[in-house]
Amino acid sequence: MTVKNAIFLVAVAASPSLSLGAVSSSNIEGTWACDPYTMNGKGLTIAVVEQHTYGNGGSYSELSTSTIKSSGGGTVIAKSGLSGSWLLANDVIELKFTSGQFLSSSNPNYTLEMGQHALDLQLQKKNWSKMKVLEFHKRLVTTPVDPMYKEAKVLVTCHRTN
């Protein structure tokens, strides 16, 4: 997380009078391309680029590309997709995933079957996600609510593509 993002999060959290105005589903509906964001864990750095599509009937789909760098110097690029439903409640986007598909890996030793198995296990542990909306006009800025991993508590900035 950059210093700028950390300062923004603190400012938002400390300013109960700060108001975005009423966020409605129509502010969120559409397709959003997200800027890369990075998560740092034990011996790994994961850079993620996502595209989210929030359908006007509550359908949801996501395509993501993750670049995983180990402290040992290896890099793997993996692509996956999720689908399900979404709703907006109290400035929080709530996602429920009904399926996931592991699409590719740059590591020939990590097969599609292995990736699909890992994704299925992750969805069995947690098949939902919540994101607090911090900004929604020219761009959509969110931060996870109760992420599975503390390293995933990052700002995600997206721009409308349609």
Q: Brief description of this entry?
A:
With 162 residues, the chain is an alpha+beta fold.
How are the elements arranged and paired?
Blueprint: H1 3-14, H2 25-28, E1 30-34, E2 37-41, E3 44-54, E4 59-70, E5 75-89, E6 92-105, H3 112-125, E7 128-135, E8 140-145, E9 156-160
Antiparallel strand pairs: 1-3, 1-9, 2-3, 3-4, 4-5, 5-6, 6-7, 7-8, 8-9
Order of helices and strands: HHEEEEEEHEEE
Q: Rg from C-alpha positions?
A: 16 Å
| Mean pLDDT score | 89
State the separation between the terminal residues, measured CA to CA: 28 Å
Regarding quaternary structure, what we see is single chain
Which percent band covers the strand fraction? over 45%
What fraction, in percent, of the residue positions are helical? Answer: 10-25%
Q: Indicate the low-confidence ranges by residue numbers.
A: 1-19
Q: Can you count the beta strands?
A: 9
Structural class: alpha+beta
Number of structural units classed as domains: 1
What is the overall silhouette?
globular
Strand arrangement within the widest β-sheet reads 1-3-4-5-6-7-8-9
